[in-house]
């Protein structure tokens, strides 16, 4: 059991922000009666680190830290940042801030930001104090023994996503740091072109790492090109989360869902979202499926997702991700799904 010092802070403090600095941030945001008692690392995520912070008067909030040196996809983030072809980044406090503001303005439930520090004067990373949602993530509710509870929670997810995907624009891409809509004047390629090119790179990586034979690599590349050739151009894009799994939805005590990990949200094909939901959510067909989706886009993006997830799981294994069992499961299951297309 951890002891506490005279200031009430745990003696095993491991948060990279010093307790006195964190208390100052909390007090500026919430008032002088709040002082930090502890900060517990909730998970070492692939893109940011999250702490649950408790104050001495019993209040709970979250601390998000965006530290590129702790990002398991640092090389990919830096490569995307250097691109000049409209490739979107899904890392960083400014994306989180603009997407949070945009979603909340449109009535999309996502935890509130209490404070954000992007000055990097004291620390070499950006961080934010964020509302705590106390009911846990969605996973346990998908197989809840009570059908009424499942209906309430997953029905709430359907309503939340419906509201999110009702936000439309004629150009694709992320919001700017200031929250402005994407400008289509500079778009030289279709939105699916970048996804295709990334899938080709990922197939080459899987083949290089001997997870895929060159023969199967070539057949999958041909299949991707054939499916892509059947996509009919359009200019109707929806605001989507972009990587929405059950671990990216929190549920409060009233069984209301909240979207988290929203840095990658952008205007894009809604099939990109739904093809991911289709294999990540138990009960997708009952609760989340739509009848207005393009089946060609659905098949194209679903294959691309499986290729991407197989690659991502393998990179996590290679880069020391602590939950090796999870990383291996992501890699192996998605590689199997990829090969099933052949």
From TrEMBL:
<protein>
    <submittedName>
        <fullName>Phosphotransferase family enzyme</fullName>
    </submittedName>
</protein>
<feature type="domain" description="Aminoglycoside phosphotransferase">
    <location>
        <begin position="100"/>
        <end position="265"/>
    </location>
</feature>
<dbReference type="Pfam" id="PF01636">
    <property type="entry name" value="APH"/>
</dbReference>
<dbReference type="InterPro" id="IPR002575">
    <property type="entry name" value="Aminoglycoside_PTrfase"/>
</dbReference>
<keyword id="KW-0808">Transferase</keyword>
<dbReference type="InterPro" id="IPR011009">
    <property type="entry name" value="Kinase-like_dom_sf"/>
</dbReference>
<dbReference type="GO" id="GO:0016740">
    <property type="term" value="F:transferase activity"/>
</dbReference>
């Amino acid at each position: 059991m951890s002891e506490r010092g005279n200031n009430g802070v745990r003696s095993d403090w491991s948060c990279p922000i010093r307790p006195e600095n964190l208390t100052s941030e909390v007090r500026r945001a919430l008032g002088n009666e709040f002082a930090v008692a502890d900060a517990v690392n909730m998970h070492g995520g692939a893109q940011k680190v999250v702490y649950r912070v408790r104050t001495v008067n019993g209040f709970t909030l979250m601390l998000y830290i965006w530290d590129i040196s702790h990002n398991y996809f640092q090389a990919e983030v830096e490569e995307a940042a250097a691109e000049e072809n409209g490739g979107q980044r899904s890392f960083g406090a400014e994306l989180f801030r603009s997407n949070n503001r945009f979603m909340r303005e449109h009535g999309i439930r996502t935890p509130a930001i209490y404070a954000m520090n992007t000055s990097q004067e004291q620390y070499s990373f950006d961080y934010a104090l964020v509302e705590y949602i106390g009911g846990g993530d969605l996973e346990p509710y998908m197989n809840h023994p009570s059908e009424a509870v499942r209906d309430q929670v997953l029905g709430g997810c359907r309503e939340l996503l419906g509201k999110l995907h009702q936000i439309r624009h004629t150009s694709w891409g992320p919001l700017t740091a200031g929250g402005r809509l994407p400008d289509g004047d500079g778009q030289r390629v279709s939105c699916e072109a970048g996804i295709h090119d990334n899938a080709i790179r990922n197939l080459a990586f899987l083949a290089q790492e001997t997870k895929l034979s060159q023969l199967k690599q070539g057949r999958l590349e041909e299949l991707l090109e054939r499916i892509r050739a059947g996509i009919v151009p359009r200019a109707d894009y929806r605001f989507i989360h972009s990587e929405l799994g059950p671990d990216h939805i929190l549920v409060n005590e009233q069984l209301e869902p909240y979207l988290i990990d929203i840095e990658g949200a952008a205007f894009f094909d809604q099939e990109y979202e739904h093809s991911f939901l289709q294999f990540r959510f138990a009960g997708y067909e009952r609760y989340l499926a739509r009848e207005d989706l393009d089946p060609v886009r659905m098949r194209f993006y679903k294959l691309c997702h499986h290729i991407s997830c197989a690659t991502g799981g393998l990179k996590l294994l290679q880069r020391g991700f602590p939950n090796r069992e999870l990383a291996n499961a992501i890699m192996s299951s998605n590689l199997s799904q990829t090969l099933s297309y052949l």
